[in-house]
């Protein structure tokens, strides 16, 4: 009867402002209830503290902050070292201290070894066949073991020679540019990329090589775009995938270009690492796993799914992981050293005293150069180049610091936050290598940082990176002094916070130290 009478009321009369308000409230409440059930199917992180979010978009405003790791560290001052954020249909748990990160990633490593399945991640990696973005599956374990075994093989056979060769070439180039104000970022990228190229393809790029510029531009663009909000939103708000997205379309075009370059390289360098050696190692590894599992009476999990695409993506990962990170670290090291020339002088004196001028530094010298090591550690602390690591996902219901964390939740280890924890570090924002050099136990002090993350997903290139950081820094500071450019402008130490934390472009003047014999 009521409905009938409503039918007789004209639309204009019915839609009075009061009715509009009532309807809007009803829609908002319904959306809020729906959103809550979607985000917390079993009311998981209810006990976890965290900032209040807006309906539907949750903590989007927090996650859009330009200096995200810094902002997340600020939130930890209010909510403690473990808290949650909500974003669309996702709940994120942020870990902000060395203790909670180690508890999760080391003590409960298997619980936190997963990666979130994202629409964008799967689209750029042949459906998740990626080493760094792939979830914790039996096939992923084979992929990781394979790459680890290959890198260990390189490490034992020719890593130091390859790194030394590139450090020598870099010094030669800087020698030719002495007295000129220049931006060293491009040179760092090229020589570090050449290390990966030497290891993977047994070939190197020449300066300004077209292929190098192309692959570098592709990977740089993918890393930059992937961190952008317009692409990130596709993972959190599935509805947006139905609408045209120019940024996503052009990112897919770059991914295609990346794949065609890598494919071309895989074809061109048939008899090197990624083909014969990788296949040999894969075969040996799978045979080993088969034998082992046959003994135990079950088949090798994941071996059937292992494909060429897993090798392809592993090579892409080595390029991305191995170029952007180390090159950015070198650029940060020089930027900080220009601000503190007396640190450069102290390292130079240490090298002269321990190694002398007759021979070149070798990796075995590292324990005898404590101040150089302290400087490397301090740059890793202040500017962890992967400040939020790569998002992890819980593989089962678990807990951190007593808080319940359900299966399938995205976990962000804020390495930057852990390295700037005021309860741990005095003057955490200041560049002071002395904090490690003058510590009673410098080795123990250095254990307070986790720039390579930890546990099942610890950086696969950590050993390679450590050789690179030591050899490059020792070679450069033994031969040159880095000064502000003629304009006198010091490098900006704030940086651009993307997936990789890079310094803003700057220029320096490189001057030779003294006549060296080696
Ligand atoms: C200063 C240098 C470097 C730093 C600070 C660094 C740091 C990191 C961090 C924080 C992660 C994420 C770990 C996690 O998700 O918890 C990572 C992952 C990774 N890194 Fe590095 N990295 C560096 C250099 C390298 C190099 C030289 C390579 C290759 C030769 C490399 C290859 C990788 C790979 C393949 C992964 C993915 C591992 C996985 O998901 O299992 N990295 N790195």
Written description of the protein model:
- With 518 residues, this protein is α+β, with helices and mostly antiparallel strands.
- It has one domain (46-512): Cytochrome p450 (Orthogonal Bundle), CATH 1.10.630.
- The protein has 21 helices and eleven strands.
- β5 (398-400) and β6 (403-405) form a beta hairpin.
- α16 runs antiparallel to α17.
- The protein is globular and about 85 Å long.
- The relative contact order is 0.15.
- The model is unreliable at 1-14 and 34-46 (pLDDT under 50).
- The site of protoporphyrin IX containing FE (HEM) has 25 residues, from α15 and α21.
- The site of protoporphyrin IX containing FE has 25 residues, from α15 and α21.
- Belongs to the cytochrome P450 family.
Present the secondary structure layout.
Elements: H1 2-8, H2 11-14, H3 17-39, H4 60-63, H5 68-79, E1 82-87, E2 90-95, H6 98-107, H7 119-123, H8 138-157, H9 159-176, E3 181-182, H10 185-201, H11 210-226, H12 229-236, H13 246-268, H14 273-295, H15 308-339, H16 341-354, H17 370-382, E4 392-393, E5 398-400, E6 403-405, E7 410-413, H18 415-419, H19 434-437, H20 442-446, H21 462-479, E8 480-483, E9 496-497, E10 501-502, E11 508-512
Parallel strand pairs: 2-7
Antiparallel strand pairs: 1-2, 3-11, 4-7, 5-6, 8-11, 9-10
The structure holds protoporphyrin IX containing FE (HEM).
Protoporphyrin IX containing FE binds next to helix 15 and helix 21.
């Amino acid at each position: 009867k009521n409905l009938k009478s409503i039918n007789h009321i004209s639309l204009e009369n019915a839609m009075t402002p009061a009715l509009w308000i009532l309807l809007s409230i009803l829609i908002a409440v319904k959306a809020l209830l729906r959103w809550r059930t979607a985000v917390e199917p079993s009311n998981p992180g209810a006990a976890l503290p965290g900032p209040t979010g807006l309906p539907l978009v949750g903590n989007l405003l927090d996650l859009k902050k330009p200096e995200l790791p810094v902002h997340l560290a600020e939130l930890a001052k209010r909510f403690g070292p473990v808290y949650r954020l909500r974003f669309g249909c996702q709940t994120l748990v942020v870990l902000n201290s060395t203790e909670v990160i180690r508890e999760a990633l080391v003590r409960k490593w298997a619980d936190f070894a997963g990666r979130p399945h994202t629409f964008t991640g799967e689209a750029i990696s042949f459906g998740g066949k990626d080493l760094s973005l792939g979830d914790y599956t039996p096939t992923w374990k084979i992929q990781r073991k394979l790459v680890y075994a290959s890198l260990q093989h390189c490490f034992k056979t020719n890593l130091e020679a390859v790194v030394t060769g590139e450090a020598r070439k870099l010094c030669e180039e800087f020698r030719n540019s002495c007295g000129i104000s220049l931006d060293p970022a491009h040179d760092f990228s090229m020589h570090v990329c050449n290390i990966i190229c030497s290891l993977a393809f047994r070939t190197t790029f020449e300066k300004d090589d077209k292929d190098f510029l192309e692959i570098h531009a592709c990977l740089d663009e993918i890393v930059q775009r992937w961190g952008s909000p317009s692409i990130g939103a596709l993972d959190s708000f599935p509805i947006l995938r139905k609408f045209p997205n120019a940024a996503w379309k052009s990112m897919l075009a770059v991914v295609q270009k990346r794949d065609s370059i890598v494919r071309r390289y895989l074809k061109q360098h048939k008899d090197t690492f990624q083909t014969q050696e990788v296949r040999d190692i894969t075969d040996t590894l799978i045979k080993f796993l088969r034998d082992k599992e046959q003994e135990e009476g079950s088949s090798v999990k994941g071996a059937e799914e292992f494909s060429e695409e897993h090798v392809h993506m592993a090579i892409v990962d080595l390029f991305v992981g191995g170029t952007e990170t180390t090159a950015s670290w070198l650029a940060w090291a020089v930027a900080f050293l220009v601000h503190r020339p007396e640190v450069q002088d102290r390292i130079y004196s240490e090298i002269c005293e321990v190694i002398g001028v007759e021979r070149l530094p070798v990796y075995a010298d590292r324990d005898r150069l404590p101040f150089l090591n302290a400087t490397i550690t301090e740059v890793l602390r202040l500017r962890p180049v992967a400040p939020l690591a790569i998002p992890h996902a819980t593989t089962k219901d678990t807990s951190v610091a007593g808080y319940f964390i359900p299966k399938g939740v995205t976990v962000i280890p804020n390495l930057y936050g852990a390295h700037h924890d005021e309860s741990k570090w005095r003057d955490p924002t200041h560049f002071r290598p002395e904090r490690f050099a003058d510590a009673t136990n410098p080795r123990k002090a250095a254990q307070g940082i986790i720039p390579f993350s930890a546990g099942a997903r610890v950086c696969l290139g950590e050993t390679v990176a450590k050789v690179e950081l030591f050899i490059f820094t020792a070679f450069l500071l033994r031969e040159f002094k880095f000064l502000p450019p003629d304009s006198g402008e010091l490098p900006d130490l704030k940086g651009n916070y993307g997936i990789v934390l890079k310094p803003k472009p700057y220029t320096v003047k490189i001057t030779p130290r003294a006549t060296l014999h080696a």
